[in-house]
């Protein structure tokens, strides 16, 4: 557990993703988005991510939500790069939240949808 965390930390900090890393990351990200009602690309230390995950949990979405902590995953850095590439951006922040394959945005966008009463219908 601790070794895995140290390995992913070193990998994400010092390792520039190869094309093989990027191909694997793409497959993982696209699979996660397609196979889960709610997909959350998160980092374990990120307060915005914690808030978004808490909100989804309060809305009863634990069973339908797949979360990956990019800072605790060997391909996390490559996955974050792919998340940017797939929306034509040079970089993205975390969390990146997808519902039914559609990008919702980050925590601010999730909260805005919730405040407008538009989140629950998406999750129904
Ligand atoms: N407005 C965004 C802010 C998210 C944000 O600033 N996240 C930080 C982590 S707490 C981030 O992604 N920093 C760059 C990174 O970790 O790559 C939201 O509400 O989700």
Provide the list of bound ligands, each named once: glutathione
- Cα(first) to Cα(last) distance is 36 Å
CATH topology: Glutaredoxin
Query: What radius of gyration results from the CA coordinates?
Result: 14 Å
DSSP strand (E) fraction? 5-15%
Helix content: 40-55%
What would you call the structural class? alpha+beta
Shape: globular
Q: Provide the residue-averaged pLDDT.
A: 95
The structural domain count equals: 1
CATH superfamily: Glutaredoxin
Q: Please state the second-level CATH architecture.
A: 3-Layer(aba) Sandwich
Per CATH, the class reads Alpha Beta
- Give the strand tally: 4
Sum this structure up briefly.
InterPro entries: GLR_AS (IPR011767), Glutaredoxin (IPR002109), Glutaredoxin_subgr (IPR014025), Thioredoxin-like_sf (IPR036249). The chain is built from 6 helices and 4 strands, in the order ααβαβαββαα.
Describe the protein in words.
By secondary structure, the chain is α+β, with helices and mostly antiparallel strands. The protein contains six helices and four strands. 53% of the residues lie in helices and 15% in strands. It has a four-stranded mixed beta sheet with strand order 2-1-3-4, with helices on both faces. The mean pLDDT is 95. GO terms for molecular function: glutathione disulfide oxidoreductase activity. It holds the Pfam family Glutaredoxin.
Task: List key phrases describing it.
four-stranded mixed β-sheet, 124 residues, 6 helices, 53% helix, globular, 15% strand, single chain, binds glutathione, alpha+beta, Glutaredoxin
